[in-house]
Amino acid sequence: MPGTPGRTGRITAVETYDVRFPTSRDLDGSDAMNPDPDYSAAYLVLRTDAGDGLEGHGFSFTIGRGNEVQVAAINALRAHVVGRSVTELCADPASLNRDLVGDSQLRWLGPEKGVMHMAVGAVVNAVWDLAAKRAGKPLWRFLADAEPEWLVSQVDFRYIADALSPDQALELLRRGRAGRAERERELLRRGYPAYTTSPGWLGYSDRKLTRLARAALADGFTQIKLKVGADLADDIRRCRAARAAVGPAVRIAIDANQRWNVTEAIAWTKALAEFDPYWIEEPTSPDDILGHAAIRAAVAPVRVATGEHVQNRIVFKQLLQSGALDVLQIDAARVGGVNENLAILLLAAKFGVPVCPHAGGVGLCELVQHLSMFDYLALSGSTDDRVIEFVDHLHEHFVEPVRIHRGHYRAPRAPGFSAQMHPESIARYTYPDGGFWAAELALTAQEVSV
Amino acid sequence: MPGTPGRTGRITAVETYDVRFPTSRDLDGSDAMNPDPDYSAAYLVLRTDAGDGLEGHGFSFTIGRGNEVQVAAINALRAHVVGRSVTELCADPASLNRDLVGDSQLRWLGPEKGVMHMAVGAVVNAVWDLAAKRAGKPLWRFLADAEPEWLVSQVDFRYIADALSPDQALELLRRGRAGRAERERELLRRGYPAYTTSPGWLGYSDRKLTRLARAALADGFTQIKLKVGADLADDIRRCRAARAAVGPAVRIAIDANQRWNVTEAIAWTKALAEFDPYWIEEPTSPDDILGHAAIRAAVAPVRVATGEHVQNRIVFKQLLQSGALDVLQIDAARVGGVNENLAILLLAAKFGVPVCPHAGGVGLCELVQHLSMFDYLALSGSTDDRVIEFVDHLHEHFVEPVRIHRGHYRAPRAPGFSAQMHPESIARYTYPDGGFWAAELALTAQEVSV
């Protein structure tokens, strides 16, 4: 359904914002690799002259310094976006995805990894936000309502065709349709299961950990997560406290945030095995496919999970091919946007590995819930052993914040990708000129001069 | 040998420049993925107040658009560099390398890949340039003269220790010393073997290809390289022409620049096997370790080569562990600088795989020759089946350009890393305000207004 050029609206602007929240003040988000993150977004708005008042919103998530580099990367993509027909773009986001990933000069800066690829993801996600809004549907339903053939057309099979062909993808999506109506009722009634990382930040005291773990239990969560990897004696003490707080039935995942070498990962995980960890997350470098496979073979029955820093579908393909994963953790804003996450969900379905998304940060919960709900309705067909991470940070800055009830994400009702921040939040936390930072930096300058 | 703080000089500035050369005009550098590159450098100068008149020069190589993102990434590292003691920094570049790679907030933008990691490489390389200049030695000799223990201290073993321990690295370097004096005489007499890609750009006519291939032969090269991968019939015709031009004894490498899926790579390479290609380079995504292993198993005796886009030592480790490579192609400006390339050279030595660097672009020949010469003197001990790529582009912009004689790189004599560009070149080709681009952009604006 391509639009008629000239009569339809065009993308008129890609506005970008460097938004940073001062989360390092409270050690929220502290882990073995990230002692003091300032959760940030390289944020963008697609404006159009379609006259329907709709905009596309998207962002890359970063943790502070370098957010300006991420903004520069999004700006570098602007020329590919401005002037496009809104109708054509929303009918085929893959066309833009191809142009962005395929820009032969920008490709040198990746390819398909790091700053440049996250920028592609931010822009592509903003297009999906706009497309879903124009369709009047939340993204999860927009995707789940789409024809399997069209969904397959949205996937870039380059470099993954040896593991997943378009025909196989089509078959998975067709098979995934059976029972969809019943699952949608279930989704609307109960939501999608969540787990919470809020108790487990490394900077928290044991008392705070215990209090928050009990609170999680009372709130209906059946899985929590603890950060580990800085000091083994501390980890043993904290795991013991957490297990004592929640009892034997609640799953406790542990997360090393890439802190270890392969051999360390194996030894450390075994040392914590007595506390029955459900999975060990990011035991080593996200680039080390063979390392994850070796760790998984050694630490079973503890499961191996990774993905929040996995750069693209090509690395996920190999993690699956080499049997390196028990749990695949997509991230909504790390790879090249919805199109590439479709590829990754299809790969996971092909290999039969459950997807438990990474979330938290700024707006990652808001985004990724849509992908898991689509996965449930149209692909995996199950929420067994599937949970979306939940961290109770910064949701107040979003126009459509996630809603959690009895340990489940409620299905969003508003059209779009839930990506939109309040204009007041953007204005206040824009770095370095927004109200909050201008005051902070003036204070720092004063202290220096005194 | 740490310096005495206060008495020694400090790094006073990291100046950055966005330098772009209009190479797309002549289709120099055209290949199956990069039809029209404008070879560019995100260039930096470290200034000090040491009073010795020495500066450190370094750069990331890009191919045009996005060079401003690369410059922004280098700027993001400035705070880690300015104010450091020059003596301490030059005595232990690894200390800076650790701080740059380990910046917990910037790390989120990689980790250790893409724009942010290339920026680390540019800064670290500039430090090595300065260190070698202060020692009054070309970098190859500065490295080859260093004690094995100190060289091992310059390597980050994180995430590679399962394949290479510090003790094993030390052993390799100690063993590599035997016969070094004789090899140095040989190096100074004959140089280091080169091969040339100048005949083989995809945009060239068959006649130009044939003429340049014969010229390469006359110049003493014993290996040339052809770009392939856009059209099989064209590739067959071009390979036939090249083989006819150089005869059976000269090695012809072919280079697909990541154009293919795994199955395509196998079929296409086999279709070109009758022309006896020496290696197939970048047959598929640089991220596809298992894919390269599958291709290598299928296309032998044609060798598999990759590396110019391999993001870091962790991916190289796995390419070696999985038997995916016959030829390892380091790049001086892709990974985290000399420190990480030391790790990669050590890994290659451990696995017995010859290193044949990627070069060309802007200044990559100037840099990487030093690493191969160090490898020969101190580690591999041989130039058998080892060649450095040579492309005859843009050397005139460098203060110490490479010198090629009878198909060999002459060993550089000037102190440093040969990284320094002429100030006039920087001024003329700075984008968008340098003399060349200002005139171009004014012309374009004029055309648009007419």
TrEMBL record, chains A, B:
Tagged with keyword Lyase: yes
Statement: the UniProt record of this protein carries the keyword Metal-binding: yes
Domain Mandelate racemase/muconate lactonizing enzyme C-terminal intervals: 206-302
PROSITE patterns assigned: MR_MLE_2
EC number: 4.2.1.68
Catalytic activity: L-fuconate = 2-dehydro-3-deoxy-L-fuconate + H2O
UniProtKB keywords: Lyase, Magnesium, Metal-binding
The protein's name: L-fuconate dehydratase
Organism per entry: Streptacidiphilus alkalitolerans
